From TrEMBL, chain A:
One term of GO molecular function: aconitate decarboxylase activity
InterPro entries reported for this sequence: MmgE/PrpD_sf (IPR036148), MmgE/PrpD_sf_1 (IPR042183), MmgE/PrpD_sf_2 (IPR042188), MmgE_PrpD (IPR005656), MmgE_PrpD_C (IPR045337), MmgE_PrpD_N (IPR045336)
Ranges for domain MmgE/PrpD N-terminal: 12-242
Family in the record: Belongs to the PrpD family.
Protein name as catalogued: Aconitate decarboxylase 1
Highest taxon of source: Eukaryota
TrEMBL record, chain B:
Domain MmgE/PrpD C-terminal residue range list: 309-481
Name of this chain's protein: Cis-aconitate decarboxylase
InterPro entries the UniProt entry points to: MmgE/PrpD_sf, MmgE/PrpD_sf_1, MmgE/PrpD_sf_2, MmgE_PrpD, MmgE_PrpD_C, MmgE_PrpD_N
A molecular function (GO) term: aconitate decarboxylase activity
Domain called MmgE/PrpD N-terminal: residue spans: 41-274
Domain of life from the UniProt record: Eukaryota
Known catalytic reactions: cis-aconitate + H(+) = itaconate + CO2
Species the sequence originates in: Gasterosteus aculeatus aculeatus
Length: 474, 495
C-alpha cells in the first residue's frame, strides 16, 4: 500500500519550521534537556569507552574541526566530534529518556554543536534551539508510526533507529537545506539506522548514540552535496518501516498550519538521577522505600537478617541480570540496583565502579533476590511499576511500590535539582567558570547571539582533570 | 607471523600519537559453548593452508572482477560525490589508495568507503547464493588495511587471500542462518547485513586478533549493520557496500583497541535480539574449528555469479531471453530490430517490487528494471555499460518498446536467484509470436564466465581508467597472488 507524500511532508516541515513556532513550554523543556545532556556528556568523558572511541577517532583530521567536550584543546572532524561526544552522553546511561522510549537528546545535540563550528556564520542560540527541537520532534513523530515503539524494545535499540533520523533532521535544519534535500537526508540516514538490542548492557551501547549523531550529521552533509536516496523512504514498504513489525506512517502537518503542535509540549522527557537504565529508577525508589519501612520497624538494616528480597517488575530480558559482571551489566540489572539501594541506602555514580560491583556483601544480597514478572506489569515506561518486598529471617515482610519515580515525566525533576545534577557532573571535568558559564548560556540561550560561546565554556577544564582521570575508575 | 604482526602494530599506533594503555595479558576464556565464540575462534585460528585449490582459484577470480568493477566505478557521479565528502577528512599520513586516482590517498577507513562505493556504483559486482554482493564489502577494507600495515610487515599474498576468504565465508555462513535469506530480499539490503560482518571478520583476521577480539569485532559490526531495501535503485545504494566495508574495518579496529560488545551477538536469545534482529526467522549454527582435518569453505561448493553488464542480477535472466528473440528477429545478418514491428511484449518474471519498473527515470532505476533491460536487449541484442547512459535511456525506439510491456508473475517463478527464470514473449504486428526463456544466464554460478570472458570484462573495465600495462600487470598480480611474498605489487597497480 503506497501512500506518497509523507516523506515530502517531513522534508517540508524540517525546512519550514521557524523560531516563531517555538512555544514557551517547548523552549523551557528543551533547554532543560540541553543542560542535562551537556552535564552527562561531560562526566561521560571520563569513561573507558569514551577513551577508546577518542583514540580511534584521532586517526582523522580535516580542515574544519569541532571541539571535543571537556577537553581543553582537542578537536576532531565534525562527524567524529559528534561521535565521541555522543558516546560520552550515553556512556553511563545517564541521559534523558522519552516516551515512546528512546534517548532523544544525545543523538542530536552533539551533532548540532559539531556542525555549528563549521558554518560560515555561527548560529544564534535560537537557531540552535530550533534545530534541536526539529531533531527531537522528528524522532517523536517516527516513534508514533508503530505500536511496537511503545513498549520496552526487544529487537533494535531505539536511538539507533530514530536517533539517526533526528540527527539528520536537526543537521539539515541547521544547514538550511531545501525541503527536497531534507527529505534525502532522512533517506540517507535510514540506511545508517538499526543496531540490535543485544549490544545494550555492553561497552558498545554508547556507540549507538554516538553513531546516531555522527551518521545523521553525515547524511545531512551528503544530502547537501547532492546525494539522493529514496524520496519516499518513510512511505514505502522496504523503507524506514523495516525496523518495525507494525508500521503505519502519517504526514507531518505544515509548519504554518495552525494544527502544528510540538510533541514535546504534551510529552515531557524523564531525567535520570542514577546512571542506569530507566527501569532501574523504579526499582531503586521502591527499594529505598521498603528499606525505610524495615528500618522504622527494627531500627537498622542488617544484611544477615534478610532472608529474601522479591522484585516485581515488567518482563524485559535485557535488564534482568542476576549477577552482573561489568559496570554495563550492572546498569541494566533490576537486581543490582535494588540491592545497591538496600545495602547503601542510595545509588549514585560510584555505585557502578568495579570496587562497588565486586563487594562480597552485595553479592551475598544478590543471591537472595528473586524476580517476578506479574501479568499486570507491562513493559512500558509509561505504565510499569516496581515492587520490592523484603522478608526477614524473623518472618516479617516489608514492601513498597513505586509507580512513578522522581524524575519521570509525570514527576519531573525540579529546576534546582536538574541544575544540581548538571553541576555535580560538569564539575568532574570543568572549572567553576566553565560550569557556571554553561548554566548561564543554556539558561538564556534564546538571547545568545552566537552559540560558539558554549563551546568555549565546554572546554574550560579544571586543572585537576589529569589526576582525576587516573584515580577515578568509571 | 602472528606475533610479528602484533608486535609491529603497536609501533604504528605509537607513531600516530594514539594513546594505547598498557595491554594486560588477556586471560583466554575457557572455550564457550556459544555460536559467537565459535566464530571468534574460527576467524582467529584459520590458516592459509586451509584454502583448497578450488577456493584459491575461485576467490582470485572474484578479486580480479571486483577490482575491475571498482576501477570503472571510479568514473561515476556517486563516486565523485563521496570522494569529495571524504577528502574533507584525512589522516596525518594519507595512506590508502583510491581506485583509479593516482594522486589521491585517503585514510584507510575512508579509502575502504569510497572504493566500496565504486565497486557497487554500477551494480556490476559479483552476486552469491544466498543473495549478497560479497566481494565489494570485503576487498576494499582488506586493501585499505594492507596499505596501513608497515612496509616491513605487509601481508603475504596468501595472508591477503585468506583474509578475503574469511570475509566471504563468514557472510555465507550467516546467510544460511535463515530461510528469509534464500529469497530476493524485501526488508534489509543483504550487503548491509552480512557484508559488514564479513568485512569485520576479514579485517580481524588480517590484524591477527585473538578469539575474543574477533568475537567482539563481529558484535561491534552488528551494531553498524542494516539498511532498508528502499534505497536500492537510488544513488544511495552504492553507499551500502561502501559502508559495509568501512564499518567492518572500523569494528575490527575498535575491537583491537579493546572495545567490547555482546558475547552472544550471533546466538539466539529470546527477548533480546542480536544479529537475529535483521531476520524474521533465525537459527544460528556454530562454525567448526579449522583443525587438522581442514575446513571446507562454502565457496568450494557454491560458486559466485559474475555480471556481464552493470545491472541487478535479475536483469541478466530477462536480457538473455530477450537477446535470443532479438537474434531470431534479425537473423544471421545482424540487422536492426525495428520497434514498429513489435505489437506487444510480455515478461514473465518473479514478483519483486524493487526491480519492477516500467519507466525508469535514472540510471539507478534502469539497472533495477526488468522492463528496461528486456527492451534494451531486444533492441540491441545485448545490454552493456553504455546502455545506461542518458542518451541510450532516452531513445525513442526504446521508450516505444517500454510502453508495450506487460509483466506477469507466474506462480512457478520464485523470487530466488537460484531458481528463477526470465521469459519473454514478443507478439509482432503480423501476429507472429516469438519466445525466449532463460533460467541460467551466462555468468550465473551454474554457467560461470570462462577465464577469457572474465579477463575481457576486466580489461574493458580497468582499461577505462588505467593504461594497458597496468591492466595486464594487475591481471598477473592477482593470478600469482598466492605465490607472492607480499601484496605490494597488487597495491601499487591500482591507480
Amino acid at each position: 500500500m503506497l501512500r506518497k507524500g509523507i516523506t515530502g511532508s517531513f522534508g517540508a516541515a524540517i525546512h519550514g519550521l521557524n523560531t516563531p513556532q517555538l512555544t514557551d513550554g517547548v523552549i523551557n523543556r528543551s533547554k532543560r534537556m540541553m543542560l542535562d545532556t551537556l552535564g552527562v556528556g561531560l562526566i561521560g568523558t571520563r569513561t573507558d569507552v569514551f577513551k577508546k572511541a577518542l583514540a580511534y577517532s584521532k586517526l582523522f583530521r580535516s580542515d574544519e574541526m569541532s571541539r571535543v567536550w571537556g577537553q581543553t584543546e582537542l578537536s576532531l572532524p565534525p562527524p567524529y566530534a559528534a561521535f565521541v561526544n555522543g558516546i560520552a552522553v550515553h556512556s553511563m546511561d545517564f541521559d534523558d529518556t522519552w516516551h515512546p522510549a528512546t534517548h532523544p537528546s544525545g543523538a542530536v545535540l552533539p551533532a548540532l554543536l559539531a556542525l555549528a563550528k563549521t558554518l560560515p556564520r555561527p548560529p544564534s542560540g535560537l537557531d540552535l534551539l530550533l534545530a534541536f527541537n526539529v531533531g527531537i520532534e522528528v524522532q517523536g513523530r517516527l516513534m508514533r508510526f508503530s505500536r511496537e515503539a511503545y513498549s520496552i524494545p526487544e529487537r533494535f535499540h531505539p536511538p539507533s533507529v530514530v536517533g539517526v533520523m533526528g540527527s539528520a533532521a536537526a543537521s539539515a535544519k541547521l544547514l538550511g537545506l531545501s525541503p527536497a534535500q531534507c527529505a534525502h537526508a532522512l533517506a540517507i540516514a535510514a540506511s545508517s539506522a538499526g543496531a540490535p538490542l543485544a549490544n545494550a548492557a555492553t561497552q558498545t551501547k554508547p556507540l549507538h548514540v554516538g553513531n546516531a549523531a555522527r551518521r545523521g550529521l553525515e547524511a545531512a552533509q551528503l544530502a547537501r552535496m547532492g546525494l539522493e536516496g529514496n524520496p519516499d523512504i518513510l512511505d514505502v514498504s522496504g523503507g524506514f518501516g523495516v525496523y518495525y513489525k507494525d508500521y503505519g506512517p502519517s504526514a507531518m502537518e505544515g509548519s504554518s498550519s495552525t494544527d502544528f503542535r510540538w510533541i514535546l509540549e504534551d510529552q515531557d522527557v524523564a531525567f535520570k538521577r542514577i546512571p542506569a537504565h530507566l527501569g532501574m529508577h523504579w526499582a531503586v525508589d521502591a527499594a529505598l522505600a521498603a528499606r525505610a519501612k524495615l528500618v522504622a520497624a527494627v531500627g537498622n538494616f542488617d544484611l544477615g537478617r534478610v532472608r529474601k528480597v522479591t522484585l516485581r517488575v515488567p518482563p524485559s530480558k535485557y535488564v534482568n541480570c542476576a549477577f552482573p559482571a561489568t559496570e554495563h551489566q550492572a546498569r541494566h540489572s533490576f537486581q543490582f540496583n535494588a540491592s545497591s539501594a538496600l545495602l547503601d541506602n542510595k545509588v549514585t555514580v560510584s555505585s557502578f565502579s568495579r570496587a562497588h560491583v565486586d563487594r562480597p556483601a552485595l553479592k551475598e544480597l544478590l543471591s537472595k533476590v528473586q524476580v517476578e514478572t506479574p501479568g499486570d506489569n507491562p513493559p512500558s515506561f509509561d505504565q510499569m511499576y516496581c515492587e520490592v518486598e523484603i522478608e526477614t529471617a524473623q518472618g516479617q515482610s516489608h514492601a513498597a511500590r513505586c509507580d512513578t519515580f522522581y524524575g519521570h515525566w509525570r514527576k519531573p525533576l525540579s529546576q534546582e535539582d536538574l541544575v544540581e545534577k548538571f553541576s555535580v557532573n560538569a564539575s568532574s571535568v570543568l572549572c567553576t567558570e566553565g560550569v557556571e558559564g554553561v548554566i548561564d548560556v543554556v539558561g538564556n540561550i534564546e538571547s545568545v547571539r552566537e552559540c560558539s560561546i558554549l563551546n568555549a565554556y565546554l572546554s574550560m577544564t579544571s586543572g585537576e582533570e589529569e589526576q582525576l582521570y587516573s584515580t577515578r575508575s568509571m | 607471523m602472528i606475533s610479528t604482526l602484533q608486535k609491529t602494530i603497536r609501533p604504528v599506533w605509537a607513531v600516530r600519537g594514539l594513546h594505547r594503555s598498557a595491554v594486560e595479558d588477556l586471560k583466554r576464556p575457557a572455550p564457550e559453548d556459544t555460536v559467537t565464540a565459535s566464530y571468534g575462534k574460527f576467524i582467529s585460528e584459520v590458516k592459509p593452508q586451509h584454502l583448497s585449490p578450488v577456493v584459491l582459484h575461485r576467490s582470485k577470480r572474484m578479486v580480479l572482477d571486483s577490482i575491475g568493477v571498482g576501477l570503472i566505478g571510479s568514473t561515476t557521479d556517486v563516486f565523485e560525490l563521496v570522494l569529495r565528502h571524504c577528502q574533507h577528512m584525512y589522516a596525518p599520513d594519507h595512506i590508502s589508495s583510491v581506485y583509479g586516482r593516482g594522486g589521491t590517498r585517503l585514510s584507510p577507513i575512508l579509502a575502504a568507503f569510497v572504493n566500496g562505493v565504486a565497486t557497487h556504483s554500477m551494480d556490476f559486482d559479483d552476486t552469491w547464493h544466498p543473495a549478497t554482493h560479497p566481494s565489494g564489502a570485503v576487498l576494499p577494507a582488506v586493501l585499505a588495511l594492507s596499505d596501513m600495515l608497515p612496509a616491513n610487515s605487509k601481508p603475504s599474498g596468501l595472508d591477503f587471500l585468506l583474509a578475503f576468504n574469511v570475509g566471504l565465508e563468514i557472510q555465507g555462513r550467516l546467510l544460511r542462518f535463515s530461510n528469509e535469506a534464500q529469497n530476493i530480499p524485501k526488508r534489509f539490503h543483504p550487503p548491509t547485513v552480512v557484508g559488514t560482518m564479513g568485512s569485520a571478520a576479514a579485517c580481524a583476521r588480517l590484524l591477527s586478533l585473538d578469539h575474543s577480539q574477533c568475537g567482539h569485532a563481529l558484535a561491534i559490526a552488528a551494531s553498524l549493520a542494516g539498511a532498508p531495501m528502499a534505497n536500492a535503485a537510488t544513488q544511495s545504494k552504492p553507499l551500502h557496500i561502501g559502508n559495509a566495508s568501512r564499518l567492518g574495518l572500523e569494528a575490527a579496529l575498535l575491537a583491537s583497541q579493546g572495545l567490547e560488545a555482546s558475547p552472544l551477538i550471533l546466538d539466539a536469545v529470546a527477548g533480546v535480539a542480536g544479529f537475529s534482529a535483521f531476520y524474521e526467522d533465525y537459527v544460528p549454527q556454530p562454525i567448526p574449528s579449522p583443525d587438522a582435518d581442514g575446513h571446507v569453505f562454502l565457496l568450494e561448493k557454491q560458486d559466485i555469479g559474475f555480471k556481464s553488464f552493470p545491472a541487478h542480477l535479475g536483469m541478466h535472466f530477462v536480457a538473455d531471453a530477450a537477446a535470443s528473440v532479438h537474434n531470431l528477429l534479425v537473423g544471421v545478418d545482424h540487422g536492426t530490430v525495428s520497434q514498429a514491428k513489435v505489437q506487444e511484449i510480455l515478461l514473465r518474471v518473479p514478483k519483486s517490487k524493487y526491480i519492477n519498473r516500467p519507466f525508469p527515470e535514472s540510471e539507478h532505476e534502469a539497472r533495477h528494471s526488468f522492463q528496461f533491460n528486456a527492451c534494451t536487449a531486444l533492441l540491441d541484442g545485448e545490454v552493456n555499460v553504455q546502455s545506461f547512459s542518458p542518451a541510450s535511456m532516452r531513445r525513442p525506439e526504446l521508450l516505444a518498446l517500454l510502453s508495450r510491456v506487460h509483466v506477469e508473475h507466474p506462480k512457478d517463478n520464485p523470487a530466488s536467484f537460484n531458481s528463477m527464470y526470465g521469459e519473454i514473449q514478443v507478439t509482432l504486428v503480423g501476429g507472429e509470436v516469438l519466445r525466449g526463456r532463460c533460467d541460467t544466464f551466462y555468468g550465473h554460478w551454474r554457467n560461470p564466465l570462462s577465464n577469457e570472458s572474465l579477463r575481457k570484462k576486466f580489461r574493458n573495465n580497468a582499461g577505462a581508467v588505467l593504461p594497458s600495462e597496468k591492466v595486464e600487470a594487475l591481471i598477473d598480480a592477482v593470478e600469482e597472488m598466492d605465490k607472492r611474498e607480499d601484496c605490494c605489487a597488487l597495491l601499487s597497480h591500482l591507480h
